[in-house]
Amino acid sequence: MAQSKKSAPEPTAQERAAIRRRAKELKAQEAAAEALKSVLDKIASLEEPDKTNAERIHAIVTKLAPSLAPKLLYGSPAYANADGKAVLFYQERARFKSRYGNLAFFGPAQLDDGTMWPTSFAITEISSADEKVIAELVRKAVGETRD
Fold it and tell me: What is the pTM of this model?
């Protein structure tokens, strides 16, 4: 006599939706990990002083604005908001054979100050005082204020 196989019950619509959500979450986590790796690899490949500048900017952004996701923008380290729009990026000096790197902020950055404000900063080397300025700019860019 052949034994009948009992099959598992079919997942409900709610269970299928939960499975799809989890798969989407895992895919997003993998994409974020790949983007972080590409940014870290890019930073590691830079020549000095760009490498140190990019490392310091990366440390500031990841500490003060963890909501921003690292990604490459035009091959340079950048940080994007939840909508995937770049908020800021560091353009290394070697890219355009310039004497300085460029820290630039984009439209989503909340740097508004009256009717005119800077959105780009030339950087040769980052001092301790510069780190504090960059930290304040990053906080302001993501809408955080210090009390």
Answer: 0.81
